[in-house]
Amino acid sequence: MWNNIRNKEDIRELMECFGGFKGSCLCDMKYRSGAFVGTVSEHFINDELSLTLIFQRRSLRDVQTIELRFTGLRDLRLSPLGAGFECYLSSATLLMENDLLRFSTWEDLDTINADAGIVLISAKSLLWRDISDVIQYTA
Q1: Which backbone phi and psi does 86 adopt, to 5 degrees?
Q2: Per-residue confidence of the chain (139 residues) as pLDDT tens digits?
Q3: In angstroms, rounded to a whole number, what is the distance separating the alpha carbons of residues 1 and 14?
Q4: Sign of CA dihedral 129, 72, 120, 106
């Protein structure tokens, strides 16, 4: 079942449900532009860009795997640290500002360290769901 983020209470519920993303890692990311090439080289453009992220964390009693689906994507910044670095998150931030949702894998959006691995997203809407029973990553 998808949960819709509409207000600060919905944000609080998501962050509480997934432990503020503390000790989680980004396992999968899928960007969808909606654009494609049709017959006779026609270009069809979809202005509702979307991004799906899957995070996982160790938890004995709470949600272990979560899927976030951002639609109406306005900004996406990805700065991975690369191979050989720890990929777990110490926290994340989700805010609602000026009719946009802003998500970051950095705790303070005003003091983002460009040398740290981050994901920064601005979008019109966000859905999330617990997929712990559906996807289980193993080494």
Answers
A1: -60, 140
A2: 999 999 999 999 999 999 999 889 888 999 998 777 777 666 666 667 899 999 999 876 778 999 999 999 998 888 766 655 557 788 888 999 888 999 988 665 555 455 555 678 999 999 999 998 886 655 4
A3: 13
A4: negative
- pTM, two decimals, is 0.83
Amino acid at 83: A
Beta strands in 33-117 (DSSP E): 36-37, 43-44, 50-57, 65-79, 93-97, 100-104
* Cβ neighbours of residue 135 closer than 8 Å, sequence gap 6 or more: 54, 56, 65
Residue 103 token pair: 């998500």
DSSP state of 133: T
First to last CA, the chain: 27
Alpha-carbon distance 41 to 89, whole Å?
43
Tokens of 120: 């920064």
> Who contacts 83 (Cβ-Cβ below 8 Å, separation ≥6)?
none
Instruction: Give how far Cα 49 sits from Cα of 7, 72, 109, 117, Å.
Output: 22, 5, 22, 23
